[in-house]
Amino acid sequence: FNAPSKLSTATTVILNVDPFSREGIDWLIEARKVIRQIGNTKDDEKSTSSSFPFDVLLIGGSSITYDTTQSVYDYFPIMIFTTAIVVFILVGLFFQSVVVPLRSVITIALTETIVFGFGVLVYQYGMLEWTGWACFNPAVSEISWAVPLLSFSLIIGLGLDYDIFLTSRILEYREEHMLSHEMSIKVGLYKTGSIITAAGIIMFIAFGGLLFSQTMALNQWAFHMSVAVLLDTFVIRTMLVPILMGFTGEYSWFPRRLQHLSY
Q: Would you say 97 and 256 are in contact if contact means Cβ atoms under 8 Å apart?
């Protein structure tokens, strides 16, 4: 297509691969490198007669999505670091401890790591293709760029909610009911375990419904959230956290000073 002014020309390039796939993005990156080299040669004072006397621009297609994704993910590490610091400070102030928020951040990070790793195995390596479910047999073996962003904050919110609920009850039985540390963990887990489990199942049903969505991004997001809820409910909060608190003993509340028990 030639503009009426005769000053510009547009050419449509049709790739033999999906422009939004990994191969398409690799082509975009390489094409931009070539265009950048052309621009550098043209601006060079020692340019030769083979230099192009015009500007070359690559627009449309997957370039807009790629630029948006890169811009967002450039700030994603800052978002992760800031969220961890805010969680640490707020939980630390609430419990007057440095061990409690440290354990919370570590266990939530463990949940995030397992969930995202499992998502890669399922959607990029086809680990569950043998099930025959359409949601686990995507046409493109890629994870939508928005899924980790949307899942990250929600997983932190759910994990932190369950963690504070459990930990506060354990502290309540330790301080107000004057139970030993080990007994406080047992009673606190007994009193909150069924509630956490019921809440987790409800959230799993709510998120799991989107696994039947025809929109792959919603499907992947639902999978990440469903795995996170089940993992956090049945493993992290009800098993790993009590075990860690049992190992750390009275130092679980450090530097908070709890009332000394005498028998």
A: yes
